[in-house]
């Protein structure tokens, strides 16, 4: 009977891992965000990896020679192999040096989405944001929303998923201790610890899916045009309500034909041409 019970425990321990990673997609792609190397390509052919190394070295040499536009072009071509926080970061650096502020901020933001704890990316993004023309004061937000958002930046979606799976497995081990333990204090400790870890596992699993959904369907975009007139309606004849400039982040609320309705951090809303922005 105990053997059957143990088999059931193992089954339920492995099932969440399969379900979570099947739903989150390719984990190795997201794990690339935590690597310091250039790219993470699963089962890539040797010649492909050689091409990556050569292109990476070429881009570094061009950057060192202050040929920033050419270096940016090489980094851009490397996205055909895959993506990583390191690639977005280096690409953004080359773009910034070549005076393409909007594209630089866009790619720093993308690097930060893949690696939210990278201090170099945070520093460079903050520095680039100081170069923007627009100095927009954001609306005050409910402290719980800010806390949840900052919590999400601590780990990637896959890392939250790992935390959920590990917590669940440890909780099941504690359940075994509770069921088969002989000492009362050990059974009590196992019971309450298992209960806490099960709740934590559920919380982190939900959080992992929320972060994944936010990354895939995020409404944020960066203004790439030098200066953009924002209208009161999706029409060239609409009244100009305000003007924003390259590098400003907006939230895309809706789209209509070639127009996008956007909201700024200060709450201002208007319509602009979709071609002037690019989603993060």
Compute the CA-based radius of gyration: 24 Å
What is the beta-strand fraction?
5-15%
Task: Note the main sheet.
Answer: 5 strands, antiparallel
- What is the residue-mean pLDDT, rounded to a whole number? 83
- Coarse shape: globular
Give, in order, the helices and strands: HHHHHHHHHHEEEEEEE
Q: In a nutshell, what does this entry contain?
A:
With 280 residues, the chain is an alpha+beta fold. It is 58% helix and 13% strand. It has 3 domains: 2-26 and 144-216; 35-130, Alpha Horseshoe (Serine Threonine Protein Phosphatase 5, Tetratricopeptide repeat); 220-279, Roll (SH3 type barrels).
Structural notes for this entry:
- The protein is of the alpha+beta class and 280 residues long.
- The chain has three domains: 98 residues; 96 residues, Alpha Horseshoe (Serine Threonine Protein Phosphatase 5, Tetratricopeptide repeat); 60 residues, Roll (SH3 type barrels), CATH 2.30.30.40.
- It is 58% helix and 13% strand.
- The strands form two sheets. Strands 6-5-4-1-7 form a five-stranded antiparallel β-sheet. A two-stranded antiparallel ribbon has the order 2-3.
- A hairpin with a 5-residue loop joins β5 and β6.
Could you list some keywords that capture this structure?
two-stranded antiparallel sheet, SH3 type barrels, 13% strand, Serine Threonine Protein Phosphatase 5, Tetratricopeptide repeat, 10 helices, alpha+beta, 280 residues
Show the helix and strand layout:
Elements: H1 2-24, H2 27-31, H3 46-64, H4 68-77, H5 85-97, H6 101-114, H7 119-130, H8 143-152, H9 157-180, H10 184-216, E1 220-223, E2 227-231, E3 240-245, E4 249-256, E5 259-263, E6 269-273, E7 277-279
Antiparallel strand pairs: 1-4, 1-7, 2-3, 4-5, 5-6
